[in-house]
Amino acid sequence: MTMKYVYSIVILLLVVGCTKDFEEINTNSNSPVTVQPSLLLRQVIYDYGEQMSYEGFTAGNLLGQYSTALDFNLFDRHDLKSPQLGGNPWPIFYQNLRDNEIILNLSQENTAFAVYEGPARIMKAYMAAALTDLFGDVPYSEAFKGDTETVTPVYDSQESIYMDEGGILDNLAKGIAAMENYTGTISLEGDILFNGDLAGWIRFANSLKIKFLVRISAKVDVAAQLQTILSEGNFIDENSENAIFNFTDGEPNNFRLARLRIGDFNNYVLSETMDEILTDLNDPRIERLYRPLGNTTTNEFNGLLNGIDASTGVSVADYSLLGAIFRENTGLLDANFMTSMETHFLLAEAAQKGLITGDTETLYNTGVTQAFAYWQVEIPETYLSAEGALSNGNALENIITQKWISNMINGYEGWVEYRRTGFPQLKTISASLNNNLIPIRMPYPSEEEALNSVNYAAAASQTDGNSINVPVWWDK
């Protein structure tokens, strides 16, 4: 036997030895082959709620004129392509929509995960609506599939995202049906909104239906659908049914604004818009949401007009900082997805416009009362018969303004509803970088132009070169 032959046998034995049971040997038995939907559901709800609460409170509250930035304020001056301390929600939407799509796919591929279909569809509808309401036309039908189909998805029209099969309203309807028809015994886990209660998810979905139908009501006849939901009465009706999860006082689950260094936290003060509205209403919620200015001994509040030229210099002691609930006591705060107060304000608007047969004043009063309770402030006995009465001025303006106040934790929502209704009457800002115009959409981020150039170019051409002054579909 030659040395060459012996060497060949040794190599053959080594190859056989190394390849036999290779897959079994190299599989980590402690690592799951597929991710558990319960873990993903918890992650999507928490990550989206935590990040968008911060985004909405920083950038959204500047656009909605709840607060004013003293410095790092290009965004407050409406240079929306220069986000500072917030102002770039695009990746938050797409990362969470991608993870949510995995849950939805798992629920349809494996009967053991069928209970997750309804919540996944509702979360998809919820996040997709928030995304398109900010930006207009966005990647949707081809999005969330970069690992299997394309990394350069086309931009769908906002109308199709709302109205088509697989869109917002369709997913809400299918999500409700999936939960109503679920007969399995496996419970929903990872649910930090309703602790696995499918009835809570159905109420959430119906409140979202109300919200999105009202939002598109200038473009689509939604009266019959709204009346059906009202008549059935299965929507979020009490604060105890709200779609929320609570923050804590300490890290890691406190409100992110509390984790900023004190100089960044003190960058935000009461806006002149909010100051005037709460003062005119003699509204005690100002003491919960803001602090008296530093240069006072009589608990005065003072707001600053949005969009200042930071180079002129202002003293933080002359203006009211944000309330302790947003820094020291964030355990009193929550991530807010949908609430009873918002549902009642939407129904009050629908009744005021004749879209439903309901008592506008009753719906409005319920919304206001629940809003005070939500912010843990006692409502004055005369509030609803005096300054805060529906009949005190323009009824529609009062409804939207009260909804705007109550949604301070969701600042983007206040801005979206201003764009839709014109209320409350926001101010021309101090040193505008947008020709004294209040923006009516967010610009697509620069990364899209670099990474999805062909489809970005087509979308930009529909928005006057990605202008922030071109209305979205439901606003036209």
Task: Kindly describe this structure.
- By secondary structure, this protein is mostly helical.
- The protein has one domain: Alpha Horseshoe (Serine Threonine Protein Phosphatase 5, Tetratricopeptide repeat).
- Helices cover 46% and strands 4% of the residues.
- It is built from 18 helices and six strands.
- The protein has helices spanning 3-19, 22-25, 37-63, 90-109, 117-135, 158-163, 168-180, 198-215, 223-232, 262-265, 272-280, 286-289, 340-352, 360-374, 395-406, 411-421, 446-451, 453-461, and strands at 67-69, 138-139, 155-156, 243-246, 268-270, 334-338.
- The strands form three sheets. Strands 1-5 form a two-stranded antiparallel ribbon. A two-stranded antiparallel ribbon has the order 2-3. A two-stranded antiparallel ribbon has the order 4-6.
- Helix 3 packs antiparallel against helix 4 (90-109) and helix 14 (360-374) runs parallel beside helix 15 (395-406).
- Residues 1-33 have low confidence and may be disordered.
